[in-house]
Amino acid sequence: MAIFLTKESKVIVQGMTGSEGQKHTKRMLASGTNIVGGVNPRKAGTKVDFDGTEVPVFGSVAEAMEATGADVTVIFVPPKFAKGAVIEAIDAEIGLAVVITEGIAVHDTAAFWAYAGSKGNKTRIIGPNCPGLISPGQSNAGIIPADITNSGRIGLVSKSGTLTYQMMYELRDLGFSSAVGIGGDPVIGTTHIDALAAFEADPDTDLIVMIGEIGGDAEERAADYIKANVTKPVVGYVAGFTAPEGKTMGHAGAIVSGSSGTAQAKKEALEAAGVKVGKTPSETARLARAALKG
């Protein structure tokens, strides 16, 4: 079993005909993802050849869904067009929209996030500014390398793409049920809490690894949720212990003001909820091994 993405998922790619879309569609296909179409209104009716696999291009998400039964879209659309692409996916009521695009204006993200809510949240949004998600051995929607880990019984949710890859590689011998990169922007769709709830309900996930970073209070809220609702062991890591106060670091959401949003405050909140928190990614991996064996 996996969360959000399974071997049955039928995936389309908005922006498949662009350079990034083509590159990562080829990688997703190579990892076994069931890519059933692309979307580009200007190239509707054509096909793109990926090493002998021809993928049709449709004029809209709704048209692609009607023709293929697609239930997942991965969005590789430039920032200024991303809001329109996500709204199109929401209007088509596709089940999952994975927004890879970096640099989307916060106002645009807030707008399509609110729009999804106004439509009954029929479309789950992951991202933006994220690596996507992977259920190893089943499907891969985004830019996560498929060959760095194996399937297993660890669930991973992370704000950071790079740390997602590192944790997957360090624990590759144990493997993952699913790994979800939720992105680090100030406004995102799926949150730590959403992923924690899904992993808690997944019978094939025995341990959850949660990676956060400085800025905001998402990790503190996740800690409260874990304390009240999660029975499975959780291991955590918070990036940014050495970040200077008041300076935005990397992700648009990673800014600290006073004691709010610091790595230390997040670590303390998680530990108070019973989460073992590593000081480095490698220490976190060791804690995960110990927790899984225990």
From TrEMBL:
PROSITE patterns in alphabetical order: SUCCINYL_COA_LIG_1 (PS01216), SUCCINYL_COA_LIG_2 (PS00399)
SMART domains, per database record: CoA_binding
Binding-site positions, CoA: 17-20, 43, 100-102
InterPro entries, per the entry: Cit_synth/succinyl-CoA_lig_AS, Citrt_syn/SCS-alpha_CS, CoA-bd, CoA_lig_alpha, NAD(P)-bd_dom_sf, SUCC_ACL_C, Succinyl-CoA_synth-like
Family: Belongs to the succinate/malate CoA ligase alpha subunit family.
Subunit relationships: Heterotetramer of two alpha and two beta subunits.
Protein name as catalogued: Succinate--CoA ligase [ADP-forming] subunit alpha
Organism: Streptomyces lycii
Gene name linked to the record: sucD
